[in-house]
């Protein structure tokens, strides 16, 4: 569960997409928290935490970011090209059908057909695409277009967290190339502070407490907000639950990654799975929730929902991936009890 403060300043409006800027006044976690759920007027963001190896040179950083955007596009492409996600069947027949659908879709869109087909084929076959089959420019432009469309946006931005020891000239060169080629680039992190060739924009994003889990805590090195109505494309546990629920009639009426606001004064929450009518919230927790602070924060949020009549069911990733029948049975029983008693108030 993540939170968003609708009263927070819309800092993303002050940042350009056509030139590289350095962000001051907010950390990567602060920025990530306040675009989850993704505001209606924000570009589709991809947060990338570069390590020392990735930031060792301009070429290495460019390759790492292009690969991250491409991987995000592969994860999200079922939202752009239907039928590319066939769990358990990665045959050449399924792959070829996915590629054909991508080519057909590209004919009536701005997508480059051959590259879109390669992404669709990679997803359907569960094999990474060849990095040398297309130029870096084609890969970045095409992958960014998929990421933006999956989020219902016209543009995408890479929010690049730069390590302290990164050579500033190489970071600036890589960022400028990325920005010229197809995405906005906003720099954060200790390593972004040394290059005075990049203009600085100060943003006002409220600080995120250490005990709040953000998307950059859940997924590394690259992360992005979930698409409302769908399981997070990078979460194997959320996708497993979606498949399990889709095969069960009693699970109808649910919403994945839905925004819930318990009162006018309360912050909205993004909840992994909800049944709004029955007021049941299901959360799938990764390892980042095991710390003492985050455990306490989860309990506080659970108490808030429960105070307003919600039932909160929490499971770990391991529960869903290794003992899913028990998880599904618990949720089934909870739904039946709520439905038998009528809609909670």
TrEMBL record:
A Pfam match: DUF559
InterPro entries: DUF559, Endonuclease_DUF559_bact, Restrct_endonuc-II-like
Organism superkingdom: Bacteria
UniProt domain DUF559: residue ranges: 237-335
Protein name: DUF559 domain-containing protein
């Amino acid at each position: 569960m993540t939170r968003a403060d609708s009263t927070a300043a819309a800092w993303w409006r002050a940042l350009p997409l056509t030139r590289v800027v350095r962000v001051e006044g907010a950390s990567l976690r602060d920025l990530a928290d306040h675009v989850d759920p993704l505001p209606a007027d924000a570009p589709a963001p991809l947060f990338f935490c570069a390590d020392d190896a990735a930031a060792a040179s301009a070429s290495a950083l460019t390759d790492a970011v292009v690969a991250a955007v491409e991987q995000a596009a592969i994860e999200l492409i079922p939202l752009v090209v239907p039928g590319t996600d066939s769990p358990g069947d990665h045959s050449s027949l399924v792959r070829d059908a996915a590629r054909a659908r991508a080519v057909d879709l590209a004919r009536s869109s701005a997508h480059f057909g051959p590259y879109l087909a390669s992404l669709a084929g990679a997803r359907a076959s569960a094999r990474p695409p060849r990095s040398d089959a297309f130029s870096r420019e084609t890969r970045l432009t095409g992958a960014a277009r998929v990421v933006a469309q999956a989020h219902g946006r016209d543009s995408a931005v890479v929010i690049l967290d730069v390590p302290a020891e990164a050579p500033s000239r190489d970071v600036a060169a890589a960022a400028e190339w990325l920005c010229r080629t197809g995405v906005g680039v906003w720099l954060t992190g200790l390593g972004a502070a040394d290059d005075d060739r990049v203009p600085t924009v100060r943003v006002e994003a409220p600080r995120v407490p250490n005990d709040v889990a953000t998307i950059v805590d859940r997924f590394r090195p690259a992360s992005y907000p979930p698409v409302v109505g769908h399981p997070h494309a990078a979460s194997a546990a959320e996708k497993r639950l979606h498949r399990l629920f889709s095969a069960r009639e009693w699970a109808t009426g649910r919403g994945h990654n839905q925004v819930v606001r318990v009162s006018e004064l309360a912050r909205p929450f993004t909840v992994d799975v909800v049944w709004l009518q029955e007021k049941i919230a299901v959360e799938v927790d990764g390892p980042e929730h095991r710390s003492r602070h985050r455990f306490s924060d989860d309990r506080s949020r659970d108490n808030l929902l429960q105070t307003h009549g919600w039932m909160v069911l929490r499971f770990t990733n391991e529960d869903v991936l290794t003992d899913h029948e028990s998880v599904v049975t618990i949720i089934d029983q909870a739904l039946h009890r709520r439905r038998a008693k009528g809609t909670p108030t």
